[in-house]
Amino acid sequence: MVDFQQLLKSDLSVANFEDALAHPYLTSLHDISDEPICMTPFNFDFEQHALTEEQMKELIYRESIAFNPEYQRM
User: Fold this and answer.
1) Distances, alpha carbon 57 to alpha carbons 22, 46, 49, 68, in Å
2) Are the beta carbons of 1 and 7 closer than 8 angstroms?
3) At residue 20, what are phi and psi to the nearest 5 degrees?
4) Angstrom distance (rounded) from CA 5 to CA 3
5) Are 22 and 2 in contact (CB under 8 A)?
6) CA distance 64 to 58
7) Sign of the alpha-carbon torsion through 36, 37, 40, 42
8) Which ranges constitute the DSSP H helices of the chain?
9) How far is CA 5 from CA 1, 15, 31, 44, in A?
10) Rounded distance between C-alpha atoms, residue 3 and residue 20, angstroms
């Protein structure tokens, strides 16, 4: 049995996601035969840029406007 409180702790070594997905509570939501497989590794190099607080705010603003253009600054 998986203790979901353990998954909320910062040290994830005490529980893993495979155990969590195998928990009876999630049985109806997880089908092991329908598990997606990533054929190529993700590249997160774009996240390695050192950004100022203002640059980060601008990026967050642009991302939110992409989904909610009606809130764009005039």
Assistant:
1) 39, 16, 14, 16
2) no
3) -65, -45
4) 5
5) yes
6) 10
7) positive
8) 4-7, 17-21, 53-67
9) 12, 10, 23, 29
10) 8
C-alpha triplet 31, 37, 44: angle, nearest 5°: 125
Provide the whole-model pTM.
0.39
User: What's the pLDDT score for residue 53?
Assistant: 94
- CA separation for the pair 6, 23 (Å, rounded): 13
Four-residue CA torsion sign, 16, 19, 21, 24: negative
Is residue 3 classed as helix, strand or coil in its secondary structure? Answer: coil
Contact 20, 11 (CB under 8 A): no
pLDDT digits 0-9 by tens, 5-61: 766 665 555 567 777 778 888 888 888 788 888 899 888 887 788 889 999 999 999
